[in-house]
Amino acid sequence: MRDLSLSIVEGSGAVKKWGFIAMHAAAAAVFMFLLQRFALHESQETSLLWALTFAVCAAGLAYKQANR
Hints:
Blueprint: H1 2-39, H2 44-66
């Protein structure tokens, strides 16, 4: 029974890690989209491309940080 509760705790840690990574990527994407679209007055396509680029980079950094 003790092993079962231990695996549940480890599972929630994995969910927290991937949730942290997804939240970090989403925040970076939203920030970059809003910056490009409304502050710098770029087109929607350019804003989405920059948002995607920053989301991938932010996810990579968050993944690296979460595995420390």
